[in-house]
Amino acid sequence: MHCSDTIAAIATASGQGGIGIVRISGPDALPLLRRIFRPSHPNSPMPAEFRFRPRYLHHGWAHALPRAGENAAYGESLDEVLAVYMPGPATATGEDTAELHCHGGPAVLRAVLDAALEGGARMAERGEFTYRAFVNGRMDLAQAEAVAELIAAPSRQGLRLAKAKLEGLLSGRIGRLRATVDELRARICLAVDFPEDEGECLDRAVFSASLVTVREGIAELLAGFERARHWREGASAVLAGRVNVGKSSLLNALLGRERAIVSSQPGTTRDFIEESLDLDGLRVRLTDTAGLRESSDMVEQTGVRRARDLAAEADCVLLVAEAGLPLEEVEHELMAACGPKLLLVWNKVDKLDDAVRAQAIGAHGPSVAEVFVSAKSGEGLEQLANALRQCILSAGDGMVLEPDTGDLAPNLRQSQLLRAALERVEELERDLEAGLPGDILGVGLDTLASLLGEITGESTPDAVLGQIFSRFCIGK
């Protein structure tokens, strides 16, 4: 990406809407805006002389450029709009920026964007507006990534976690860890340059205490990553079990609508069906799978194999069985394979009398989480939803991983760097205990500082930056 020219793009989501925005950023944002925007005030001066009040919405019309040979200030009128000019560097990108707020139809927005491109702007690449904000010092790399995470947040909790990073809280925490490492690096340099004063410059007890501080800080951030994973990315749950136990009926009941075909004929569901479910702010991708049984049908065999694969990858497996009937071998095998992430769901309890139901409860021991439901009557659905949420958030160990107040949630890239940094700290602690000289410790500290700096963009390779911003949408 080149940051010396002027770029333009549609900044709002595709499709129809009440308002759509065409954004322009770069050194020619104001001259370009004057060429394609005509103010509505009857006494407005010529376009080149019109004075835009910064950060003030001006009413008028967006126009195409005049055709070749036309003696006119403007071309074809495209839309009635509101225009705003924001001079840099106090803008989102750190550059002069202009926006045209149009009616939100795709044809309207494309026509206005074409006028901006014809007027000299270049079509923005994916994430280029945010990239320019990063290059121009308006935000660091962790904040830039938070922009994409904020847009893609699957839940209210995920939104809060992304917002905390956008506000710079993660960057501040990383900056404090980096400052501790840089202080140790400075001490190492003094100890190497003045070996006669090494004992004073490189107090190994102070060095060790500082490494403990950095290690604990990194470990705390990694714990936040684990607690927030499902809130940031969503979770997956699979409905599994034998044929005709009511998996599809249960999917429909949880969704509150007829999504899967329900039939008394065994093997109706041959492929998996996915739908999203909101469990008190936690987004869950719920998958209905083919019934587990032996079959000579190649299509059904493929469906059964997919069901087992999905169960292995899911955060929670809902093993649906028919209440009042004993579990078969295939169900016991699935219970053994899934372990604590399995929730045993007894369906069709409306067919049982109280005595049989009481006898069934807890029959598989306290280690198996069980819920009794009726997809037909709706009985137990609320308890099932709560149990499913707890099963996902507990990660199978009984402790619910709800993000703490003030939690920070590094993304996958950041957590990988933090794990590498943690390994480096532990290696430095071993080297310090072994009594290795300061110059060798200094090499480890340089690597540690580089890993932490890569999180905030201070030492991030260009290839990595390209990968990060290429995942953004155009116009952001």
> Strand count, sense and closure of the main sheet?
7 strands, mixed
Q: What is the mean predicted local confidence, pLDDT?
A: 82
Structural class: alpha/beta
Which spans of ≥5 residues are poorly predicted at pLDDT below 50? 261-270, 396-400
Strand content: 15-25%
Strand numbers in spatial order across the main sheet: 3-4-5-6-2-1-7
- What's the total number of strands? 13
Q: How many individual helices?
A: 16
Whole-number radius of gyration?
A: 30 Å
Secondary-structure element series: EEHEEEEHEHHHHHHEHEEHEHEHEHHHH
Q: Considering DSSP H and I runs of 4 or more, what fraction of the residues is helical?
A: 40-55%
Ends distance = 14 Å
Rough outline: flat
What can you see in these coordinates?
This protein is 46% helix and 17% strand. It has 476 residues and is of the alpha/beta class. The strands form 2 sheets. The chain has a 7-stranded mixed β-sheet with strand order 3-4-5-6-2-1-7. Strands 9-10-8-11-12-13 form a 6-stranded mixed β-sheet, sandwiched between helices. Helix 5 packs across helix 8 (204-233), helix 6 runs antiparallel to helix 15 (438-456) and helix 14 (412-433) runs antiparallel to helix 15. The protein is flat. Mean pLDDT is 82; it is low at 261-270 and 396-400.
Present the secondary structure layout.
Blueprint: E1 7-10, E2 17-25, H1 29-36, E3 37-39, E4 58-63, E5 77-86, E6 97-104, H2 106-118, E7 122-123, H3 128-135, H4 141-152, H5 156-166, H6 169-193, H7 198-201, H8 204-233, E8 235-240, H9 247-255, E9 273-279, E10 282-288, H10 298-313, E11 316-322, H11 329-338, E12 342-347, H12 354-360, E13 369-372, H13 381-394, H14 412-433, H15 438-456, H16 462-470
Parallel strand pairs: 1-7, 8-10, 8-11, 11-12, 12-13
Antiparallel strand pairs: 1-2, 2-6, 3-4, 4-5, 5-6, 9-10
Helix pairs in contact: 4-5, 5-8, 6-8, 6-15, 8-14, 14-15
